[in-house]
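Fresh eyes needed here. I'd like your take on this protein's tokenised backbone:
***
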Amino acid sequence: MAHVPLKPIGKARKRVLDDRAYEDHLRDLTQREARLQAAFAEARAGWGEKYVDRVHAKGKLTARERVDRLSDPGTATFEVGTLVNHGERFGELRSPAAGVVTAFVRIAGRLCMVIANDNTVASGAWWPRTPEKIERAQAMALRLKVPTIYLVDCSGLFLPEQRRSFSGATGAGHIFKMNSLLSDAGVPQIAGVFGDCIAGGGYMPIISDRVYMTEQAYMVIAGAALIKGAKSTKITSLDIGGAEVHVHESGCADVRVPDDETLLASIRMEVERLPSSGADYYRGGVGSIEPAFAPSELRGLIPPDHRQAYEAEEVLARLCDQSLFWELLPDVGREMICGVGRVGGLYAGFVVNRQGLLSDPDAPGKVRPAGILYRDGIAKISAFSRACNADGIPLIWLQDIGGFDIGREAERHGLLGLGSSLIYTNSTNSVPMFTVLLRKASGAGYYAMAGLPYDPVVQLSTPISRLSVMEGRTLAIATYNTKLDDDFRIATEDPQQRAKIEQGMAEVEARIEGDMDPVIAASRMDTDEIVELHALRDWLAALVEMTYQGVGQRRIKNSRIWSLHDLALLGGRVDQSEAGAVSTEQTGEAKAAAPAQNVDGLVFRAPTAGRIYFRPAPDKESFVQVGGLIERGMTLCLLEVMKMFNRVSYGGDGLPERARIVRLLVTDGADVEQGTPIAEVESA
């Protein structure tokens, strides 16, 4: 089968989520985005205007100005590690962005990794985590085989904190090993030396294929001040290791240029000499086409509350070109979606966690929550991951996962072994993989779906990401388990002891919830970058393009001979009763049962057992009011099942498109069985 059977997916936003819920999500997200933008602004400002003016007074550009000048006009820069060290103090000092800019930048049509010392922050010194950040950027460049550009203006280690950045396995010296590995792999490296390059800063450019120096630049093992102290010799750093010395005497640099602007133009010229991108070749004449549904709608479609369900298909519909997608093995392990779509005209594999409720293939008539790894889903995505690796298709993992299934049945089904197979697959894949923490990234599920410990090329978070072993409330219960009864209620009648346990549990929950903050994760390098949801498609398009940019560096099969075709064909012949086939309901949008006969008028029934809530939160207005109007697709209530809140939308066979609420038939917070009448309506 040579044809890639891409099919339309997704629905218009108003068919997915009503205006009120959408606007509620937007308001919540806007607050988070504002905080994120403030953190970004602080990082990008370095030490502020005073230090920018100092750089300009020397006739030099700042690091970020150099990056801007180097990039193709009108193109986006994709910075990684922007928030490293955010909020951390070193004595009285800060190190915004760890004093270095690392970013994917388009130069002369090629996407490159640029590493630029921030000369407004302690003259580009290396702080704790600066070496790790540089090495992480080098590792990304090595995996993608993209040209690597060093804009060097570095005064060496920030000596008061040298203990934390000098001696460890990923200390400053490891940067030079990464230089060597890049060179050994044939990755082009170009260095521009703009100013102080002392000690490690002097070593950093040397292994590069081409080294340029301005007339203000110098590279030295030890600067003039140290030599004066050690040898009582009066000499300037330019005399010791300026362009005159290293271009004409030592040969440690190749070309001297008068100033920053000339050096940047020279680097662009060097990049232009490299082979052009192979991305257009692999597109095969197919250009990038925007999705049928705006990517910006992701801001309101994904609930910031991790307990609320949504339709994962709608995320894919706003990421893939033309909202076209080929889902493989759709009737096996339906808690997982795996398949292929184009992003920026290039094929990529996707693995996504469904949300909401699904029919339980092992218990007919019952449901179970998605967002968890079960037996069939693990086997499916493991086979899909191996097939993508065999076919050379870059793989994108969109995580919103609560972990693995647990309990006796899970162990009987061999989830430990199946999970190990998936981990082995992802650990040994050679194809580039990228991970996005859409929302929850919990427990071993985070590991199994190519979390950062399993070496994806890049891991992105969003403003609503939550990275942890388990949720704060769950961990508080586990911590105080011996003080609780079987229903997790505090098992004491002593008021003082009860208050002490309540306070302790609240403190544990608050601390864990704080640790889940994506800004904190980014500051500690537990994730590579936080990306706003509306920008996620642009990021993925750039990352996927880089996997196709180089030619001949890895196997990339043409689509006629993909292993995926074999997988799809074999999957189509599985006996559906044995495969755990389930109904095809939209998992984030529960629909009503048929009208009831035991109540006057038309009745909307509970789609499954659970607890009904007519308000999105205790302090919010009810979704509906008696006498109020409701239209198909609007939210009627939330249905809590297994600690997940599923949005119940009005609609169903026999019910009018537009109706008036005659009466609510259950109270807020009531437990209901499947088919319980919830609301009586009449045509409006």
The CA atoms of residues 289 and 369 lie 34 Å apart. The longest strand covers residues 189-198.
